[in-house]
Design goal:
It is built from 19 helices and no strands. By secondary structure, it is an all-alpha fold.
């Protein structure tokens, strides 16, 4: 019996070839990678966007972002990459734990030190906020800041949040947090306006609203920080821009409500109760450092021991912090912790200065420098480094310039696919 040749070359039922288990697994992994990458970036954007709206919501998205980051690392088989600024934060965390062990109340200090976990924002943004995502995140920060600024203006003008007893606070729990966040956003928006290559119009449109909202918070430390940050940007861009400062001051005093003007004048009044109390806190903190120079009194212990160190010229019997970042860190965690904190500041300033030379990161680097120096200036009158919302946004702004020059997930995926195609063709 003779069979047709077609039946001899292949089965007549034409079965579909089956993929091996290894091939199925590889295909699944390749499909999962871009999905995880996209989900991680979206989650990071939601985290950053909610920072100025709700600490609870931002905590949820931060947790989700960290989970997706870990999943991406595992699925890609990547090593954890850490920018230089993170190492100083890691050492700072180590000295904090030493301070916890030597604390007057180790349990309370350990609970307070959970905020050290917020330092993970740096490697998180460094991995997920790369390439185009960095500029998207910056746009989200400016846009959400504009929304919160409008809320603050409404609170002042309509809801009568117009006195020292009741100030605009946006959706935050405290006016100091709100004003600190506005300060950081103003620096970022100004940097984009002066150094950006895109979306400069939007930054210029929202900047007056941000400035008005900040003025209405009556928060002098944030005013000082904003002036230093914006002044630094003027110097970097063109020193001649400093000539506009007297004009800005004249406009401020010409248009500002009387409560805002009185608050500005109070900064120079040595008999002002808040000014007197800050001097008293400085003297009390100095005595704490003298007694506990290496480990401090312990995290969250300043308010417990403050009555024993209170200066005779002090106004408040108890103060939760000393309204000065380096002073408070030294009193709470010891002089070595201050040295490491200064290492962090110097490292961040150096890395951001280098990023100014790259056109891709120039605007973000300028915004990061404005944020860093604003924090330092305002931090001489307020413990802003210990404010969770402020610290997280600060770390985001310092890390974005370091991440923007790295290829984003989509680019890496495309390069990987092209490599595999070329390899198969060969």
């Amino acid at each position: 019996m003779t069979f047709p040749s077609c039946l001899l070359t292949k089965p007549w039922w034409n079965p579909k070839p089956k993929m091996s288990t290894t091939a199925v697994t590889a295909a699944t992994v390749e499909t999962t990678k871009p999905r995880l990458e996209s989900a991680g970036i979206v989650s990071l954007c939601l985290f950053v966007g909610s920072l100025q709206l709700s600490i609870a919501v931002s905590a949820v998205f931060l947790t989700a972002s960290l989970g997706l980051w870990i999943a991406i690392l595992m699925s890609h088989g990547e090593r954890v990459e850490l920018p230089d600024i993170f190492w100083s934060l890691l050492v700072y965390a180590g000295f904090t734990l030493v301070s916890v062990a030597a604390s007057l109340d180790p349990i309370t200090s350990l609970i307070d030190s959970k905020e050290l976990l917020l330092f993970l924002v740096v490697p998180l943004v460094y991995r997920l906020g790369r390439g185009r995502s960095a500029h998207t995140i910056a746009s989200i920060i400016i846009s959400v800041g504009a929304v919160t600024a409008v809320v603050g203006i409404i609170q002042y003008g309509i809801l009568e949040f117009d006195s020292l007893g009741q100030r605009p606070l946006g959706s935050m729990g405290h006016y100091m947090t709100y004003s600190g966040l506005l300060m950081l956003v103003i620096g970022l928006a100004t940097a984009r306006l002066l150094f950006g290559t895109s979306d400069r119009l939007w930054a210029g449109l929202v900047l007056p609203t941000l400035l008005v909202a900040l003025a209405l918070t009556l928060t002098r430390s944030a005013w000082v920080g904003t002036c230093i940050g914006v002044g630094l940007l003027f110097v970097i861009r063109d020193r001649r821009l400093l000539a506009a400062v007297p004009i800005i001051v004249a406009i401020f005093f010409g248009l500002a409500p009387q409560t805002v003007i009185d608050r500005a004048y109070s900064a120079f009044d040595l008999q002002d109760p808040t000014n007197r109390d800050r001097f008293a806190m400085a003297r009390a903190g100095t005595r704490m450092i003298r007694d506990y120079p290496l480990t401090g009194v312990g995290p969250d212990m300043v308010q417990e021991v403050y009555p024993a160190y209170k200066d005779t010229g002090g106004v408040n019997d108890v103060n939760p912090h000393l309204h000065n970042v380096p002073l408070h860190i030294a009193a709470e965690r010891g002089l070595p912790a201050v040295a490491v904190w200064l290492w962090f500041i110097v490292t961040a300033a150096r890395k951001l200065s280098l990023c100014l030379k790259d056109s891709k990161s120039k605007a973000l680097a300028a915004g990061g420098l404005a944020a860093l120096f604003s924090m330092l200036a305002a931090g001489m009158f307020e413990y802003n480094f210990g404010d969770s919302e402020f610290l997280m946004l600060l770390l985001v702004l310092l890390t974005l310039p370091l991440a923007v020059t790295r290829p984003d997930g989509a680019t890496e995926q495309q390069q990987e696919t092209q490599g595999k195609t070329a390899s198969a063709a060969t």
